[in-house]
From TrEMBL:
It comes from OCS116 cluster bacterium. Residues 1-24 are annotated as: Disordered. InterPro entries: PAS, PAS-like_dom_sf, PAS_fold_3. It comes from the Bacteria. Residues 40-75 form the PAS domain. This is Chemotaxis protein. It holds the Pfam family PAS_3.
């Protein structure tokens, strides 16, 4: 199935992103639509566009002030977000394939570009994310198998910390084998 969730082929994750149960049903949106959100430094939502509202199924009132991870699908490996937050914390932008969870439990894949937002004095004040419909061939052939591998490593360890460390080591090994850095790897797909 196009854009299936990883959970169908992975062991059940012990992590909970929220109380919504994934349905396994993929949702798509038009290639010319861009999902936009802005958060403060703590990741609390400060702005969403109409496409975010339409695709996620939440109202603007439901998301404002909430942690952005309210749309995080439990199939997202923690290693991806660890890398993402590390780059953002150093003032760098990041590209990532992300599976998000709709209010009704459906899911949607995005190619996210996330970057810090700065005030006039150059101080980080939050984050801006623009997400587009990804190439589903890349998602199905490369990203889902990669994320399944990382998620299996994370969930098969008794310690979440050790699982994350091993997952990150696997992620790093892939980049070294390709001779690229993370953003280069993602953009080369």
């Amino acid at each position: 199935m196009e854009g299936e969730s990883i959970q169908k082929t992975s062991k059940k994750s012990s992590r909970k992103s929220n109380e919504i149960t994934p349905t396994g049903h993929p949702l798509t949106f038009a290639a010319d639509e861009v999902i936009v959100s802005k958060t403060d430094l703590a990741g609390k939502i400060k702005y969403v566009n109409d496409t975010f509202i339409k695709v996620s199924g939440y109202s603007e009132r439901e998301v404002m002030g909430m942690p952005h991870n309210m749309v995080r699908h439990p199939d997202m490996p923690r290693a991806v977000f660890n890398l993402l937050w590390d780059r953002l914390g150093r003032g760098k932008h990041v590209f990532a394939y992300v599976i998000n969870l709709c209010k009704n439990g459906d899911h949607y894949w995005v190619m996210a570009h996330i970057c810090p937002s700065f005030d006039a004095d150059g101080n980080a004040i939050g984050y801006h994310s623009s997400r587009r419909k990804p190439d589903m061939k890349i998602v199905n052939e490369t990203i889902i198998p990669l994320y399944k591998k990382l998620l299996d490593i994370e969930t098969n360890e008794t310690s979440k910390r050790i699982g994350l460390e091993k997952s990150m080591a696997t992620f790093d090994k892939i980049f070294r084998a390709e001779g690229v850095k993370y953003n280069e790897f993602i953009l080369s797909l």
